[in-house]
Design brief:
With 240 residues, the chain is of the alpha/beta class. It has 8 helices and 7 strands, in the order βαβαβαβαβαβααβα. α5 packs parallel to α8 and α7 runs parallel beside α8.
Length: 240
């Protein structure tokens, strides 16, 4: 089995090298990996740092692609999918919120059980009132994610607790056949809707994250992107 790890990047000069170090160090029993970095028109030193890392480490399983202008996370992931050669693909954000070690848990679920798609869920829990969700902005983010996951479950007939999670592992061959149009964060509900409509069952495994603050570069806007996600879920319930 081969796993394609797709890393969409936009202005992550502070975290891209630590993320690459963690990803390149990963080993998967019974599987090999390839890493596909897609820079989405970064204007900081992200590209420079990626090229320096590649020139220094010379990893033979790492491939770099670049957009000439910023198109959005969805566009970067779609580019990654188009170049992926693995049996399965998984998305890894270029910040340090997600622990790459958790990818092993997703892959293990596919290897041991007859599972089509695996999502890493952050939301099989109550709000962390003593941690990030003690602030109003992060509490709204938590509640928004729970609401969108409930809408997904209701519209598409599969119980999902964390539709917006970055960690989505899916068969590459099927993903390549999907008509994916989203360019921004609405990619998450679109691919979820279309994987389910393709007849695939989504399985969830718990993961942990360390959310970064908006002052640290967090890009998701709960209200703006939440409205787009809701519209996307409703749209693709009834059309392709």
């Amino acid at each position: 089995m081969k796993l394609s790890i797709i890393i969409p990047v936009f202005n992550e000069e502070k975290t891209i090298v630590p993320v690459l170090e963690k990803i390149t160090a990963l080993e998967f029993p019974g599987a090999e990996k390839e890493i596909l970095i897609v820079d989405d028109g970064s204007t900081d030193k992200t590209v420079e740092k990626v090229r320096q890392y590649i020139n220094k480490k010379k990893p033979n399983d790492l491939f770099f692609f670049s957009h000439t202008s910023n198109q959005g996370k969805g566009a970067a992931v779609i580019t990654g999918i188009s170049h992926a050669k693995g049996d399965y693909a998984v998305i890894q954000d270029a910040d340090l919120e997600y622990n790459p070690e958790d990818i092993k848990r997703l892959l293990k679920a596919v290897q041991k059980e007859a599972i089509d798609v695996v999502y890493g869920t952050r939301l099989k829990r109550l709000p962390h009132f003593s941690k990030e969700e003690r602030t109003g902005r992060f509490l709204m983010h938590y509640l928004g994610n729970k609401f969108l996951s409930l809408i997904t479950s209701t519209l598409y007939g599969q119980w999902i607790t964390d539709m917006e999670t970055c960690y989505k592992l899916f068969p590459t061959k099927i993903a390549k056949k999907l008509t994916l149009r989203a360019r921004g964060f609405e990619f998450e509900p679109e691919i979820t809707a279309k994987l389910i409509k393709a007849g695939l069952k989504i399985h969830e495994v718990p993961i942990s994250t360390k959310p970064r603050g908006y002052s640290e570069g967090k890009k998701l806007d709960t209200f703006r992107d939440g409205r787009k996600a809701l519209a996307t879920l409703i749209k693709y319930r009834f059309i392709d």
